[in-house]
Amino acid sequence: MTLDSPGARRVLYALAGTVAVLVVGAILHPGFASWSSLRGMLVVASFTGFVAAGQMLVVLVGGIDLSIPWVLNGAAIVLTTASLGQTSRAPVAILLALGVGALVGLGNGLGVAWLGVPAVVMTLGMNGVMQGLTLGLSKGLTCASCGSYAPSPLRSLFSGALPAQLFLWVGVGLFMTVLLTLTTFGRRVYAVGVNPTAAFLSGVGVRGVTVALYTLSGVFAALAGIALVAYGGQPSLGLGDPYLFESIAAVVVGGVSILGGRGHYLGVIAGSLTLVAVTTFLAAQRVPEYGRLVIYGLVILAILFAYGREKAHD
Q1: What is the distance between the alpha carbons of residues 269 and 164, in angstroms, rounded to a whole number?
Q2: pLDDT(147) > 70
Q3: Could you tell me the residue range of the domain that residue 179 belongs to?
Q4: How does it sit in the membrane (predicted)?
Q5: pTM for the complete prediction?
Q6: Residue 64: inside a domain, yes or no?
Q7: Other Cβ atoms within 10 Å of 136 Cβ, number
């Protein structure tokens, strides 16, 4: 990705949007861009960044993952119910939670790649299955009622002065960058996204790539669930609901083509930061909830319109 490429320009646009919101916020509200405020925004953005990593991978091949909300929620509840708040059970509980995400993602990938089920239908159906299973596991109770907590070492790591999720997000960023830009698999991902038929004729295992990407999406959704419950201490039913829209918004604001074949995770990071900065700024302005949703949507549409004009001129 060169500096004069459309992808690089879109990353810069998303970063510029973040900086612009921070500057305006700092002018109108002293302290808006202070370290404590920035730290809070980075923490919130990291959760979006985790789920958006998986969403980006499937979008790169022209797909979409609508099962994210309840994969995230299910993984969070599996973590707390399997660990029972005990430190000794934390490693196994984390692996189980990640395994749930991988299993659901694998199911999505097999349905899309091998059974030919449209991604929207397959992942939406799987989201419903996970919602039912999660409600059954928790017996429909909130975490306060069922008494399940994340192990205390996890809570300490994710809510300290330098929260672990920020370092984890850096690790995710490095992983995504290396995977997509420095490996043969990454080149195959872009090839499938640009033209799956041509990729297949070139010897790329299109089905295998698709299954792998949906599996990774499930793992990233589960990772977000683990991070959220470690940060908050307890999961709750509906914990993942906001992250479906946010994951898609971060991907498109970050310059990833919704039709597949183009995008970089650096843009998704910038998109996540932009969305959180806008939300924080509107909250500081005491804009009512309905107003925030309207402005939030308009900002996303404005960015997409700018990308559309850029594409028309390329």
Answers
A1: 17
A2: no
A3: 7-307
A4: Multi-pass membrane protein
A5: 0.91
A6: yes
A7: 9
Whether pLDDT at 145 is above 50: no
Note whether 219 and 66 are within 8 A (CB): no
On whether the CB atoms of residues 246 and 55 are closer than 8 A, the answer is: no
Q: Quick check: is 2 in a domain? A: no
In whole angstroms, give the CA distance from residue 252 to residue 292: 19
**pLDDT tens by residue, 6-29:** 667 777 877 887 888 888 888 888
CA distances from 145 to 63, 135, 138, 217, 229 (A): 37, 13, 10, 30, 15
Residue 312 counted as domain residue: no
Query: CATH number of the domain that 80 lies in?
Result: 1.10.3470
Distance CA 268, CA 253 (A): 7
Asked if the model's pLDDT at residue 311 lies above 50, the reply is: yes
Residue 164 lies in a domain: yes
